[in-house]
Specification:
Radius of gyration: 16 Å
CATH topology: Nucleoside Triphosphate Pyrophosphohydrolase
Structural class: alpha+beta
Strand content: 35-45%
Largest sheet: 8 strands, mixed
CATH class: Alpha Beta
Shape: globular
Number of strands: 11
Order of helices and strands: HEEEEHEEEEHEEEH
Family: Belongs to the Nudix hydrolase family. PCD1 subfamily.
GO molecular function: coenzyme A diphosphatase activity; magnesium ion binding; manganese ion binding
Protein name: CoA pyrophosphatase
Keywords: Hydrolase, Magnesium, Manganese, Metal-binding
Distance between the termini: 13 Å
Number of domains: 1
Cofactor: Mg(2+); Mn(2+)
Helix content: 10-25%
Amino acid sequence: MRLTPGVLEQAIKLDQAGTADVSADLNEEWLTPAGVLVPLVERRVGDHFGYHVLLTRRARHLKNHAGQISFPGGRQEDYDDSLKHTALRETYEEIGIKPSQVKIIGELPQHTTITKYVMTPFVGILPPTYSLTIDPSEVDEAFEVPLSFILDKKNQQLQSAMFQGEKRYYYSIQYHSYNIWGATARILVEFSKRIHHTFDHCLEE
C-alpha cells in the first residue's frame, strides 16, 4: 500500500493514546504554547516515490536546545492568529519556506518539553521544488530524512537518562551523523505509530 496524503490524513486523525515516554509534567501550571511544522516532501528514489521529513539543526549559540535536531517552529506570539499560523510564520523566518508553499493536512497531539513548552505539531506537504533561505541566527542547517527510515521500528531506540534527580525516558533516532531525540523524536515516533496502525487497519478491510 502506497503512502499517500489520504493515508497520512487518516493516520493524523486517529484517536489513540500518545507515546509513553512523555518526559515533562503535563500538570505544570505554566507552559508556553508553541507551534511546529512537520514538513513532508515527496521524493523519487529509483523507481519508487516516498516521503522525506525536513528537519533543522538549531544554531549552537541558542540558549535552549542549542545544536539539537528540531522541526521548524517556535513560541506563539500575541500577534499570531493561531498555533498553525505560529508554525508557518516560524518556518518562514527560520528556513525561508513561505506559508503559501505548505499544504497543512492535519494536527498531531501536543507534546511538552523540559523547557516548559507545549508544542502542537502540524503536518504539512511541501513541493519537491522548495528552496531554503536559512537564518543563521536560529538554524545551522536543514536536511531531509526518508520517512521510511523513521517508520522502521529498529531505528527507534527508547533510552533513559537522569535529569534533575529523576530517571526520564526518551526516544532517539540516529540517521547518519544526526541524533534525533527528545520531543522531536517523540513526535516522529507518535506519527510513525499512527501510520503503522492505519496501514494495519487498511490491510484488515
